[in-house]
Amino acid sequence: MRKINICGHEYEIECNALSYIQYRKIFDKGIFEDIQTIENFVSLQVIMADKLKKENPKISDSEITKELSKIMLNNIDEYIEAVTRIAYICIYTANKEVGNYEEWLTQIDRINTNDKWIVEVTEYAVACFC
Questions:
Q1: Pick from 38, 44, 42, 46: which is nearest to 126 by CA?
Q2: What is the pTM of this model?
Q3: CB hemisphere CA count around 73 (13 angstroms)
Q4: Which terminal CB of the chain, N or C, has fewer other CB atoms within 10 Å?
């Protein structure tokens, strides 16, 4: 079991075969669909960042971040839903008392696509299932 920090709240996370079953039961979809959504988002972000750098070699990192935010806007909803569902199921697997998904979401004040916990949870789930 591991611990992660999301917006000042520390959670234990666990991932096992039950996580896979519970994911489908709770969200009515497979966890691999959401893992693919995350991979697609990150890949597109990398491709677009490279394109911006090639088109304008003097562009600053902050300008790249600003431009990526605009470009990725169409994909952000699916990405956020995928990462929060995966985080929730890992937390739920470790602690069934966490409450339901929507109750848990109320504890998250903000979500940035580059939050450390997103990478930690995603890598943890991918290591478990892939």
A1: 38
A2: 0.89
A3: 5
A4: C
Token pair listed for 33: 């669909």
Whose tokens are 């949870």? That residue is: 121
First vs last Cα of the chain: how many Å apart? 18
Q: Which of 51, 79, 83 is nearest to 64 (CA)?
A: 51
CA-wise closest residue to 119 among 31, 1, 4: 4
